[in-house]
Structure formats: structure tokens, C-alpha cells
Amino acid sequence: MEKILIIEDEEKIARFIQLELEYEGYQVEKALNGRDGLEMVKAQPFDLVLLDLMLPGLNGIEVLRRIRQFSNQPVILLTARDSVMDKVTGLDGGADDYITKPFAIEELLARIRATLRKASANNTAVTSHVLRAGPLELDASRRRACVYDTVLDLTKREFDLLQCLLENKNIVLQREVLLEKIWGYDFDGGSNAVDVYIRYLRAKVEEPFSLKLIHTVRGVGYVIRDE
């Protein structure tokens, strides 16, 4: 059963959509503000997100921007803002579709079906590229990393560094090699940058879960191993 998250602060509208979607056979959860919705997306996978733009706390465009930092899951913007610029901003920000209120429920359902079909086709075309070390799992194609079932909130640089270590699991990588792969040949900030980002990774990947996956090889560099 496909799972949909509704992020909508107008509770009556959220409830109405929820009932219609459940009647159509979808599993539905909802959040009434942007921050709660973002945390739910981080915590568990959804097949599609219906996202309002004018949300309290964290607006819809910011929620979308943060989702796109770690996930390419389908997002349909659902909003009363109907200017061309609003639509362009939403679609350029990574939304898969944009529908304005008021809307006919039949149109919303059709757009959801179309978006899910497109996502399914894309997922079939993309070869899964999942890397693992102990309970750590990184899906490169989805830009998603998790420990046990907890999704990690990684910056692009942290994600790329972790992916590089996992692609070379059990192989010691020199700091200079990591610098070239992640920061590029032109980076002149010194190898200390690697040490700084390894600390960031340990704080997010290891410490909250009492793990020891990333090992320092004194005078050389780093290696990731199964715990």
C-alpha cells in the first residue's frame, strides 16, 4: 500500500484529503505544521508528500528545500498561492507538481496517480546503490543514509564523504585522497578539513548510537569497517 504524508495546517482540509485518499486505498499520515512534517519525512519513507506552502513555523518552500537535501521522494505542492512566480519557485525548488486551491478532488487524485507512476518508472530505471557498514545504510541513488531506522541529517559534504568511505570499506584512505575526491584538486584549505568533517560524521553516525565504524589510522587517514 502506497504511503502519503499530508503537510497542511488547515485541519479540515487535511482531514478531507486524508479521508478521500484512504477511501482510494492509500495509507495516510498528516502533519499540521512544517517542522513536524519535515521530521516525519526524515524519520520514515513516504511514497509521496502533499505539501502546503503557507505553513506555520517553517514554510512549505523551506520544507521542500530541506527535503531535497536528502531525498528525491515525490512532492506535490498544494496551495492557495496561484501566481506564475509562485508556481515557478515551487517547481524550480524541486516539487514534482503544483495544484492550487480550491481544487477538485478528482484532479488531485489523478495528479497523485500520475506522480506515483512517474516515480515508480524512475525507481525502476535507477539501479539501487546501497552501501552498508554494520547498522549504517546509505542509498546513494536516493541520497539517504540511516542507522537502524533513523534517517541521518547530513550536509552534502558529509554525505559525499561518508559515501566515499563506504565505497572503500575496509580500505584505508589517505587524507590527501579524500581531499581530492570530496573537495577537489583546487581546494587549498589543508587536510585538516577532512579531520573536521570526520568529527561531524562521528557526531551524527556513531555517537547517538554508541557505534564505532570510522577508524583513524594514525599518520595516514581513515577507514570504515563493520563494527
TrEMBL record:
- Residue ranges of the OmpR/PhoB-type domain? 128-226
The record, for Pfam families, names:
Response_reg, Trans_reg_C
4-aspartylphosphate: residues carrying this PTM? 52
Report whether DNA-binding shows up as a keyword of the record.
Answer: yes
Known DNA-binding region: 128-226
**InterPro entries membership:** CheY-like_superfamily, OmpR/PhoB-type_DNA-bd, Sig_transdc_resp-reg_C-effctor, Sig_transdc_resp-reg_receiver, WalR-like, WH-like_DNA-bd_sf
One Gene Ontology term from the biological process aspect of the record: regulation of DNA-templated transcription
Among Gene3D superfamilies, the record links this protein to: 3.40.50.2300, 6.10.250.690, Winged helix-like DNA-binding domain superfamily/Winged helix DNA-binding domain
The record's section on CDD domains has: REC_OmpR, trans_reg_C
Pinpoint the Response regulatory domain residues: 3-116
Query: Which terms in the Gene Ontology molecular function aspect does this entry carry?
Result: phosphorelay response regulator activity; transcription cis-regulatory region binding
Question: Has UniProt tagged this entry with the keyword Glycoprotein?
Answer: no
Query: Per UniProt, which keywords does this protein have?
Result: DNA-binding, Phosphoprotein, Transcription, Transcription regulation, Two-component regulatory system
A GO cellular component term found in this entry reads:
protein-DNA complex
Name the PANTHER family for this protein. REGULATOR OF RPOS
How is this protein named in the record?
Answer: DNA-binding response regulator
Can you name the source organism?
Desulfuribacillus alkaliarsenatis
